[in-house]
Every structure is written in C-alpha cells, then in structure tokens.
Write a structure and sequence with these properties.
binds adenosine-5'-triphosphate, ABC_transporter-like_ATP-bd, 6-stranded mixed β-sheet, 4-stranded antiparallel β-sheet, alpha/beta, 35% helix, transport, single chain, ATP-binding, globular
C-alpha cells in the first residue's frame, strides 16, 4: 500500500474539519476524492502534505509512519503535492520552476534529474518550447501542466493533486486527466481531489466520496459510477 490514512482528524485552530477519515491508495492506482463544496477535500490534502497539523489518526507512506511530518520531510519520503492555486514562482522561468521541483533531490546526480525532467516534458510537450517564459504567460492548462511536472521532478512515490481540472476548458480537463492516467500506468500512485466528478470517474480506479469531513462512500470507480447515491448527487443523472 502506497498511502494509508487511518482516523485522520485535522482542522484550523479550534475548527475541526476532518473527523476520523480513512483512505487507502494501493501502489500504482489513481484514487479520486470527490465531495460537495466545503466537504474538506482541500483540508485533507493539506493535512496529507504536512501543511496543517494533524490532531488525530495516522498517515503511512509505503509502510513508514509519517504522521506529523512537515512538507519537506514528506517530500523526501516520496509525497509530492500539486496545490490548487498552482503556486508557481512567478518571477522565475518555467525551467527554474521545474528545477525547484527537484530541490529535495539536489544531491542526486544531474543526469538523473535531467532524465526525470525529460520524462515530465515528454508527458507535457507544450512546456518544452515555453521553458524560458514566465509562468504567468502560460495558459491556465499549461500552468496546471507545469505544476504537475514540477511535482514529478521530486520523483514522488505518491502524487497528491488538489482540483487539477479547476478553471479549465473540457478539452484540457481531458488532456490533464489522460496524463494522470499515463502516470498511473507507469506505476505512480495518485490521489486527486476533484470537483469535476465526471472527469474523476473517467480515469480513477477507486473513488472516495467525502461529506462534512468524513468518507461517506467509497469503492471501485466502475461500480460506484452506477450507484444511485453517486449518480444523483454528482453525475447529474447521466
Ligand atoms: P471546495 O471544494 O469548496 O474547495 P473543500 O471540500 O476543499 O471545498 P475545504 O476547503 O477543505 O473544503 O474546507 C472545509 C472547511 O474548512 C470549510 O468549512 C472551510 O470554511 C474551512 N476552511 C478551509 N480553509 C480554512 C482556513 N485556512 N482557515 C479556516 N477555515 C478553513
């Protein structure tokens, strides 16, 4: 198991948002987490990537208990986070943003970093001719590609993504999710939080449904896609 979350609780100050959440991502699987606005999806990813403290439960990454680890230590253990607002360093070039993604691998041979970079650029060929541009000059879809490519530069075992489809035209949503599917086919484990349930179901292996800080339903994507509770609330009845 790449990622195991048990009884996770977290929140902001005295506001408790996650109430004992369980989630698993098997090796080489694409797991989607869907849920209404305010269900706690972003909070889950923040807790998983060490951006907010965990108040209960545990997080295990490839058998290592990483509960309470901060972002850099988690990155070194193999977890990369692609945030929703696609935080990129605006004053640096696309190329330098990619280079910063490999920060935790800086002591590894340059040839290895180059190999990882070339693979990320092969996945998103649109980035190659734009390496010397500022990220702000990229389209929304290209910025999302950059954010994912930057996450890949850390050579993660598990990539967690916050709303990869947000604000993108349908064709680009398809392109981004197809790339996530290819990464999964190459053996990466992915956990994507997603508002766009249709896009998530099209590619995910397993889907979790969150409501008010808890998992209320989960299962194999193909099975869950025909569950009336899912079709009614998330897939618009077909
Ligand atoms: P959305 O799909 O709208 O992004 P979400 O499922 O990702 O929703 P969260 O963003 O995790 O939900 O929000 C869950 C709850 O936590 C909400 O009640 C929200 O108001 C609260 N919350 C989120 N971020 C903060 C913060 N930085 N400080 C305080 N409360 C927050």
């Amino acid at each position: 198991m790449s990622l195991e979350v048990r009884g996770l609780s977290a929140g902001y100050g005295r506001l408790s948002v996650l109430h004992g959440l369980d989630l698993e991502a098997a090796d080489g699987r694409l797991v989607a987490v869907i849920g209404a606005n305010g269900a706690g999806k972003t909070t889950l990813l923040r807790a998983l990537s060490g951006l907010i403290p965990v108040s209960g439960g545990s997080v295990t990454l490839a058998g290592v208990d990483v509960t309470g680890y901060g972002p850099e230590r988690l990155a070194r253990e193999g977890l990369a986070h692609v945030p929703e607002n696609r935080l990129v360093f605006p004053s640096l070039t696309v190329e330098d943003n990619l280079r910063l993604g490999a920060y935790t691998r800086r002591r590894e041979p340059a040839a290895e970093r180059r190999r990882v970079r070339d693979r990320a650029l092969a996945l998103f060929p649109r980035l190659e001719p734009r390496l010397q541009q500022a990220p702000g000059t990229l389209s929304g879809g290209e910025q999302q590609m950059l954010a994912i490519a930057r996450g890949l530069m850390a050579r993660p075992r598990v990539l967690v993504l916050d709303e990869p489809s947000v604000g993108l035209a349908p064709r680009l949503v398809g392109e981004i999710f197809a790339a996530l599917g290819r990464l999964r086919d190459d053996g990466l484990t992915l956990v994507a939080v997603e508002q766009n349930a249709r896009a998530a179901f099209a590619v995910a292996d397993h889907v979790y449904v969150m409501d008010r800080g808890r998992v209320v339903l989960h299962g194999d994507a193909a099975t869950l896609a025909s569950d009336p509770r899912v079709t009614a609330a998330f897939l618009g009845g077909g």
